[in-house]
Each structure stands twice: as structure tokens, then as C-alpha cells.
Write a sequence for this structure.
């Protein structure tokens, strides 16, 4: 599709020499002198466009040439308009140039003006011009001459709604009402299809039809068809296409997150009288009249969408219309709460009709929005809606990228409201995470925003386990997807052990647990290691590795959130989970390493915040730190566990810390240190990094400084270390520089421990020493002041 | 409203680095994002144009990344189709949505819907509160027309040399970025106009 030829064309366009370009300009100038533009001229104009647009740096056209293009914009031939607009868009507007506003602006010229607008004033003038043309239309104008008015207007609204004055808004509202509600119900003159039967009979006015072929019995909408269309029917389409945006912009109280309770009191009393008398809507002011007509139009669309369309594209349009209609109804109900009672029956019926149809899932999201916004006023039970949206959609449609995007967006935009009105939302995280497990790169952004809302003290532990098992969930979804796509007996290239396991009844429970929809049935499964073994080949499936890469990010979000709401008991439990799971992860090496890194970071953080956690969980931490195998398989995490033990296992952190506890910790660490410094690492493992050994030594020194009986034991070890290393290389350290660093550290600790009283304050300084106080600390301030003065007064 | 429509590469291009994308066609709708907000008022028109081009390039890059990750995950092989098999190419196309956060690159959050047809991506950047079902249908329709009228399944460069055809297509099916609720009859009528223009 994309060829070398295209690539070289772009290159040529960018690298064209100035002299050649000037020649091209003069050639063009000559070509454009005539009234008609031949094929050659058109080709040349296209080339000019390519030259101008291929580079991000602007080229300026010669003034004469640019003026010629401006003139060409008003040419009656569309090709001239298109080409000149395209060229002018890529250059700078002439200063002081004003397109002649008195002409009827064609669509392409209007587009150019729009893109070159530099101020709200420009946009206002454009609107004024368009609306003036709309009002004073010459009857001989071509059919589509004013179709672009509404889209251009809509575009202006997006960027600066204040460009329309009150009067202009009223005018447009009135026009919209006319086109939406009172468009012709007879078919327009179709393009002649020729043939046998053209004659007087075919010129009889024929009423419009519905999408299923039956004759239409009500006013014209976008879901009505005919052989041809009248102009007001076209305007009906354009009006409806911009209606929601118009209502959102000018019927200003339209916002999806408004708390409807407060507003209903006020609005209900003021407007109820007006809306109740819908038959006398002619007496309503334009804004309210438009609202009423929008309401009627949407109700009609909902009705029409129940018909069986003949064409597939029309069925898709019906779905889109349902979405739009429900959104507009939601909007008008937010504006006028009394309309809720008129609307709800219709929405409820729609929900009933569509809730079991997965192909209409995307229509159910605006319906859910409606229930969320207005369910409380109408005292309607919304339980079923949430069961479908949270319980069913992620289970069945996790692989629909558009549904995932829209559902997560719905959650993000309505989070506050959902947390208030749908408390069961937090229980559905196992289901919602399926979207992430299937398509991590596209969904991770949304989950970074949503995950904090899913973290509750009740489900925190289960959530942590679930996050750690996301790659397994990802693999399971792949298997589930393959299982439904492939017949059971067919061999698939490579044999999938995991696919067989997925279909095996004895392992069903494992996979069902992963695929559960709600939290609360258990933190994790017993046979986690079995599951990991079954899924070992999934470790290099792209979907699984993409998912694994997002888990660390989510873990950070999880821990950042949990520290704000958890009590010490829960944090202690989380530490235990971290220690336990550090060896229970799906075997993807990069993944395991990253998770250990995240665990280390947050273990440190939790212990810093609550130092007494270390004494509390000393048993489990010691068990972890006392196992030599952990030095080799989980180096990073091990180092941090040892560090927190050394740092926080003291009476000053928790009064329950006894001498015997310190001693037993010391002994456990000492044993490991002896082991790893007396022999080579086991086969297949690398030598422990100097950091591990230094941390162990420092921890021992810290503990000894708190219980002076232990000092001789440390000193003994450190002197032995010195002796051993003097004889040259050792089996447990491959790098000479590393060895030197270790020995140096050992000597520092040894000399420090010779003065036990000082050792404790140096190794574990009390908090007021390490927290900087800057100018508040008289000991620090003076030197700082002197230094500052010195540097100011000395010339160098 | 639709902010912009792009056609860009989603395959490796030798002249570019790995994650980059060559933009073959881009059309940004409406007034310039920066002009009416406080931030970029002091920029000259040249700088504004440059900024806009960079924004478009940023979108293309993000979509390119999304397309390659999606294709990697699904493991599907890209099958080259011949001219004449546009419907097949469209059926086989992968699709998705990229969430573009506020500021990256447009001032408010937008959604970039994309269709990956072999080595090219067709992207529609929609504003918030846009009807994405309608946008999806419109994107498919636009893509089909581009593939057909510009013979994009072949080796030609019409997408570069006949971009006025895309302009006209957009002016009918997506005028000034407005998504339209077109039933098959309205769509037929507009498509006839487009075909008549292309025939010239």
C-alpha cells in the first residue's frame, strides 16, 4: 500500500530548491490566467499542495499567486474551490486580507475562514454572515448551498460559544425546531433513474417511508427514507446531527455529573407547569420549545429503532440513533427534572428490550448514565442495570475495544456519583480488570485513574492478589477465547498444554476463580503454584507479556492509595502477602524482577511510616531473612527485608522489642552471612551483590549496637573477613573492586563498634538529627548564613 | 465534532525511526486549538501551523504504537490484498481506540478511533461527548471510499497527488468535522455527488 514512490514524492516535495519553486510559481501564475482549469493545471495545483503540506515549515506564496487563489475560492466550479482552499490552508493568511463577506460563502471558503480565524471577533463575523445568508435565502440557490451552515456553526460553538448573540441563538433555536419537527413528510424529487416507468404517475407526491418499508405515520426523522429528499429534510439530518452539542452548550445546566437531588426541588416547581402542558408548546419560549421538540424527536427515534431495517448499515444507524436519543433525553432531563417522569417509562422499556442483547451493549451505556443521573428522583430500582454493566459486559465483551473504552470512560467521568449511588461497584474489580488483562496498552491509562476507587480496606488483600495474577488472567482469557474459536479436536500447530488444562475438569476451579465476576469469595486460591505450572508456556504470549508490563505501575497506584486508608493491621497483612507472593508469581523473569523491585520499594515505605510493623511481623520477616536461598533468588527483596530488620527492630520503634528478639534476629542473619561468605554460590546462581553483604553486615552492627553483648561476635566475624580476603580472591565474590568495597565497609563498622555508645547514634541516628530543619535549627543556620555571606562578598 | 482525520503509515518506514509514522493526509477541522485559548495567543501564524502539524504527528505516532501493540497481541498476520478487494481489506482491518489525555496533544481529552488496513492507518480524533458508534461507522465508510477512489491497495501515490478527492469526500460525509446520521438513502445521495466529482 505504501510504496517507495510515495516516499520519494514526499522527499522531493520537501527538498525542492527555491529556484525551481519560483519557476513553478510563475508557471502556475500563467496557467491560472484562464477561466477554465485544464487537467494539467489541476495536476500542478495538486503538486503545489503537496509541496506546501509535505513540510511542517511554512512556505510563503508570491502575493499575486495567493491573491489569485483567493479569487478562485469564489469560483462556481467546486474543483476550483477545493483546490484553492487546500492550498490556502497550507499558507499564511495575507495580512489585511479579508475575504469578501458579502458573497455567499461556499462550504470550502467557510472552512478556510474557520481554520484561519485568529480571534473570537473573526468567528462572530463568520456566524453573523452565515446566519444572514440563512435568513435571506435567494430561492434560486443550489440545494446544498446552505447545508454547511449548521456544521460550521457547530464548529464555532465548540471553541467559543459566546460568539452567538442572544438573538442569533433564538433564531437558530427557532430554525432547529422547524427543521426537526416540521420537515416535509413527502418524498422529494429523486434523481431520475430513468427506465420504463417514469411518467406522470411517478411524479405523484409519495409519503416518506420507515426503514422496514412501511409508510411513515409521523414526522420526518433521520430514520425515514425516500427516493429523494427535500431541502428541509436534509436540514432535519443536519439539525439532529448537531442537536446534542447545541443543547449541551446553550442549555447550560446540562452536565452529566450534576447532583439531581438538589436541583429537582427548584426546577420542578418553576417549570412543571410549563412542561406539563405540552400541547400548548407553541406558547413556550424558543429554548423550552426546542427542548420539547428534541424530546419528541428522541422518543420517535426510540420507537423507530424497534423496526427491522432492511439494510445492515441502517441497523447500525439505528443503534447510533438510540445512543444519541438517550443522551439527548438525559440532557433535557438534567435541565428540566419534571421531564424525568415522562421519560423513564420509555427508557425502562428500552432497557428491558435490549439488556439481554450483547450486540446492543454500547447502547446500554447511555441508558446506565440515565439511570445514574435520574434513577434516584424517579425512585427506580437500578440494581439490574449495574448487574448487566459491571457483571455481564466485562465477562462477555472484554475483547471489544470500543465497549471497553466507553465503559471505562463512563466510570471515570461519573466516579463520584457511582461511589455514592452504586456502592457495590468496588466489588466488581475482578471483572473490570478483564478489560486490562486483555488489552493492557490501551487500558492501562484508564486503570491508573480508576484503580484508587477500587481500593477498599475490605478487599485490599484480594485486590493485591488479583493484580499479581493479572498475567494469569490474561492467559486465561486467551485460552477462553481460543477455546470458543477452535473446535475441541483440532490440533493447533503447537500443542497447547495450557489449552488442555483449561478444558480439564480437575483444574476448572482454578480458572473459574480467576474468571470470577465479584470479589468476596476468597483472597486467592490454594493451588496457585499448580496454576503457574499449567500456564508456563503462556509466559511468552504477547498479550501476557504486555499485561505483565503494566502490573508494576498498578501496584504502585495500589500501594500509594492503600497507605492513605489502611490501619496497621491491614498493612501488616499486606507485608505478609508480599513476602509470600514473592516466590509465587508466573514465571516471566523480567516480570518477577520488577515485582520484587516494587515490593522492596513499598516494604521500605510501609516500615518507614509504621516502624512498629517490623516488630509485629518479626517472625515472618526473620523466616524470610533467615533463608539463605532467598539471597540468591530474591536478592533485591532480601536486601530490603534485612535493612528494615536492622533499622527498625529496636526499642525506640516499638517497646515490645526484647533483647531476646534482637538476639534471635542477629543469630539468623549471622548464620546467613556466614554461609554466603564461606562458599561459592550454588550452581546456576550468581555471586551475591556487595549490597547484600554490606546490608547484612550493617544490620548486624546495628543490632549489636543495641545489645552490646553481641558486639564481640560481630567483631570476630569482621576480623575473620579481613583475614580471608587478604589471601586473595574468594569464591563468593567475583569482582576485586567489590571485594575491596565489602572489606572497607567491614572495617568501618568494626572501628565504629569499638565505641559502642557512639555506634548506636551513628548507625541509627534519632529522627531529629536526620530531619533537616534548615533555618529553624540554630546549629545549622549560622554556618549557612556565613557561607552565604562569604560567597556573596568574595569576588570569585 | 471530529477534530481531525488522518491517513498515516503504521508499518516501518525506512527513512524514519522505529516508532515514527509518515502522515500522508491530514485535515484538521475548525478553528485552531491554540488561538482561542490563552496559552498560545502570542504565537505567530507560522508557529501555530507548526504546532498544529506537530500535534497531528503526535497523534499519528500514538496510533502507530497502539496498532503495532494490538497486532502483536492478536498475533494475526497481515495479508496483502489486491486492488478490487477493498471490502475484504476492510473486513480484515484491525480497529481500536486510543485515549488521548488532555494536553497530549489537544487541550482537552479526545478519543482517537483507528482502523489499520495493512500498512496504513485511518484515524478519526473525536471530542468528548461524541457518539463513538456513529464515528466508527463514519470512519469505516470514509476508509472504504478512500481505498476505492484513490486505489490505495495498489502501489500508486494517488493519496498524495489526488488529495482534493479526500477533501470533497470529507466535505460531504464529515462536513467541517460534523458526524452525520445518514441512512442508506442519504448516504447514497452524497456518494453519488462524490462519484460525480471524482469522475471529472
Amino acid at each position: 500500500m505504501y510504496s517507495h514512490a510515495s516516499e520519494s514524492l514526499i522527499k522531493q516535495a520537501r527538498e525542492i530548491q527555491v529556484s525551481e519553486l519560483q519557476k513553478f510559481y510563475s508557471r502556475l501564475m500563467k496557467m491560472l490566467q484562464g477561466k477554465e482549469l485544464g487537467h494539467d493545471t489541476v495536476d500542478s495545483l495538486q503538486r503545489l499542495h503537496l509541496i506546501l503540506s509535505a513540510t511542517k515549515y511554512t512556505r510563503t506564496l508570491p502575493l499575486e499567486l495567493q491573491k489569485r487563489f483567493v479569487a478562485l475560492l469564489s469560483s462556481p466550479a467546486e474543483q476550483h474551490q477545493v483546490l484553492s482552499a487546500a492550498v490556502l490552508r497550507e499558507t499564511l493568511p495575507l495580512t489585511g486580507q479579508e475575504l469578501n463577506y458579502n458573497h455567499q460563502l461556499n462550504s470550502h471558503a467557510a472552512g478556510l475562514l474557520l481554520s484561519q480565524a485568529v480571534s473570537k471577533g473573526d468567528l462572530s463575523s463568520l456566524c453573523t454572515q452565515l446566519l444572514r445568508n440563512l435568513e435571506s435565502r435567494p430561492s434560486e440557490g443550489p440545494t446544498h448551498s446552505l447545508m454547511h451552515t449548521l456544521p460550521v456553526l457547530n464548529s464555532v460553538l465548540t471553541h467559543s460559544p459566546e460568539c452567538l448573540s442572544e438573538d442569533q441563538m433564538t433564531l437558530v433555536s427557532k430554525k432547529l425546531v422547524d427543521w426537526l419537527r416540521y420537515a416535509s413528510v413527502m418524498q422529494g424529487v429523486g434523481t431520475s433513474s430513468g427506465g420504463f416507468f417514469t411518467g406522470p404517475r411517478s411524479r405523484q407526491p409519495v409519503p416518506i417511508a420507515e426503514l422496514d418499508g412501511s409508510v411513515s405515520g409521523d414526522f420526518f426523522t433521520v430514520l425515514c427514507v425516500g427516493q429523494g429528499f427535500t431541502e428541509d429534510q436534509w436540514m432535519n439530518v443536519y439539525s439532529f446531527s448537531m442537536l446534542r452539542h447545541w443543547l449541551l452548550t446553550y442549555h447550560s445546566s446540562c452536565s452529566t455529573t450534576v447532583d439531581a437531588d438538589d436541583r429537582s426541588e427548584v426546577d420542578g416547581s418553576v417549570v412543571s407547569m410549563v412542561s406539563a402542558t405540552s400541547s400548548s408548546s407553541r406558547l413556550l419560549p424558543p429554548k423550552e420549545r426546542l427542548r420539547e421538540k428534541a424530546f419528541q424527536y428522541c422518543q420517535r427515534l426510540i420507537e423507530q429503532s424497534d423496526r427491522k431495517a432492511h439494510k445492515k448499515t441502517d441497523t447500525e444507524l439505528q443503534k447510533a440513533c438510540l445512543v444519541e436519543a438517550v443522551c439527548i433525553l438525559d440532557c433535557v432531563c438534567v435541565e428540566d427534572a419534571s421531564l424525568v417522569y415522562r421519560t423513564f417509562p420509555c427508557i425502562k422499556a428500552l432497557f428491558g428490550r435490549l439488556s439481554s442483547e450483547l450486540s446492543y451493549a454500547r447502547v446500554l451505556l447511555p441508558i446506565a448514565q440515565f439511570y445514574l443521573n435520574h434513577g434516584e428522583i424517579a425512585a427506580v430500582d437500578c440494581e439490574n442495570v449495574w448487574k448487566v454493566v459491571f457483571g455481564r459486559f466485562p465477562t462477555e465483551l472484554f475483547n471489544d475495544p470500543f465497549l471497553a473504552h466507553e465503559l471505562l470512560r463512563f466510570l471515570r467521568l461519573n466516579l463520584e456519583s457511582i461511589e455514592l449511588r452504586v456502592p457495590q461497584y468496588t466489588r466488581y474489580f475482578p471483572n473490570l480488570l478483564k478489560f486490562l488483562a486483555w488489552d493492557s496498552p490501551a487500558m492501562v491509562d484508564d486503570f491508573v485513574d480508576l484503580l484508587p476507587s477500587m481500593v477498599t480496606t475490605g478487599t485490599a488483600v484480594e485486590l493485591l492478589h488479583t493484580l499479581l495474577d493479572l498475567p494469569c488472567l490474561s492467559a486465561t482469557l486467551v485460552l477462553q477465547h481460543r477455546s470458543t474459536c477452535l473446535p475441541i479436536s483440532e490440533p493447533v500447530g503447537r500443542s497447547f498444554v495450557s489449552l488442555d488444562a483449561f478444558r480439564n475438569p480437575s483444574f476448572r476451579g482454578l480458572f473459574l476463580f480467576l474468571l470470577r465476576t465479584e470479589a468476596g469469595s476468597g483472597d486467592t486460591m490454594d493451588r496457585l503454584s499448580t496454576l503457574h505450572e499449567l500456564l508456563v508456556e503462556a509466559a511468552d504470549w504477547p498479550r501476557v507479556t504486555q499485561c505483565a508490563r503494566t502490573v508494576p505501575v498498578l501496584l504502585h497506584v495500589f500501594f500509594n492509595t492503600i497507605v492513605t486508608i489502611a490501619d496497621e493491621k491491614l498493612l501488616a497483612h499486606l507485608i505478609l502477602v508480599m513476602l509470600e507472593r514473592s516466590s509465587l508469581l508466573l514465571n516471566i523473569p523480567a516480570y518477577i524482577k520488577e515485582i520484587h523491585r516494587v515490593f522492596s520499594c513499598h516494604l521500605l515505605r510501609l516500615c518507614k511510616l509504621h516502624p512498629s510493623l517490623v516488630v509485629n511481623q518479626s517472625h515472618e520477616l526473620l523466616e524470610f531473612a533467615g533463608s539463605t536461598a532467598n539471597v540468591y533468588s530474591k536478592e533485591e527483596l532480601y536486601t530490603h527485608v534485612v535493612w528494615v530488620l536492622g533499622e527498625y527492630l529496636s526499642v525506640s520503634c516499638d517497646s515490645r522489642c526484647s533483647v531476646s528478639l534482637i538476639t534471635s534476629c542477629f543469630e539468623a542473619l549471622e548464620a546467613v552471612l556466614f554461609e554466603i561468605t564461606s562458599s561459592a554460590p550454588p550452581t546456576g546462581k550468581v555471586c551475591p551483590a556487595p549490597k547484600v553483604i554490606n546490608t547484612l553486615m550493617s544490620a548486624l552492627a546495628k543490632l549489636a549496637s543495641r545489645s552490646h553483648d553481641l558486639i564481640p561476635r560481630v567483631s570476630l566475624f569482621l576480623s575473620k573477613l579481613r583475614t580471608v580476603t587478604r589471601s586473595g580472591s574468594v569464591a563468593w565474590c567475583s569482582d576485586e573492586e567489590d571485594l575491596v568495597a565489602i572489606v572497607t565497609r567491614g572495617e568501618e563498622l568494626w572501628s565504629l563498634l569499638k565505641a559502642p555508645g557512639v555506634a548506636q547514634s551513628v548507625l541509627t541516628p534519632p529522627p531529629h538529627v536526620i530531619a533537616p530543619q534548615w533555618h529553624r535549627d540554630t546549629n545549622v543556620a549560622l554556618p549557612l548564613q556565613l557561607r552565604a555571606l562569604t560567597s556573596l562578598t568574595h569576588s570569585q | 465534532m471530529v477534530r481531525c482525520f488522518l491517513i498515516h503509515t503504521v508499518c516501518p518506514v525506512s527513512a524514519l525511526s522505529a516508532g515514527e509514522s509518515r502522515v500522508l493526509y491530514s485535515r484538521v477541522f475548525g478553528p485552531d486549538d491554540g488561538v482561542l485559548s490563552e496559552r498560545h495567543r502570542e504565537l505567530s501564524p507560522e508557529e501555530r501551523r507548526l504546532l498544529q502539524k506537530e500535534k497531528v504527528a503526535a497523534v499519528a505516532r500514538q496510533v502507530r504504537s497502539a496498532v503495532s501493540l494490538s497486532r502483536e497481541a492478536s498475533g494475526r498476520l497481515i495479508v496483502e490484498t489486491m486492488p478490487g478487494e477493498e471490502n475484504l481489506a476492510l473486513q480484515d482491518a484491525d480497529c481500536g481506540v486510543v485515549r488521548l489525555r488532555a494536553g497530549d496533544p489537544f487541550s482537552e481529552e479526545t478519543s482517537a478511533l483507528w482502523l489499520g488496513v495493512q500498512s496504513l492507518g485511518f484515524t478519526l480524533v473525536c471530542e468528548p461527548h461524541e457518539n463513538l458508534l456513529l464515528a466508527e461507522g463514519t470512519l469505516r465508510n470514509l476508509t472504504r471510499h478512500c481505498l476505492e477512489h484513490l486505489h490505495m491497495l495498489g502501489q500508486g501515490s494517488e493519496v498524495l497527488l489526488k488529495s482534493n478527492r479526500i477533501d470533497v469526500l470529507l466535505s460531504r460525509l464529515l462536513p467541517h468535522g460534523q458526524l452525520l446520521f445518514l441512512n442508506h438513502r442519504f448516504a447514497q445521495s452524497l456518494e453519488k455527488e462524490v462519484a460525480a466529482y471524482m469522475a471529472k
Observations:
- Strands of chain A lie at 209-210, 224-225.
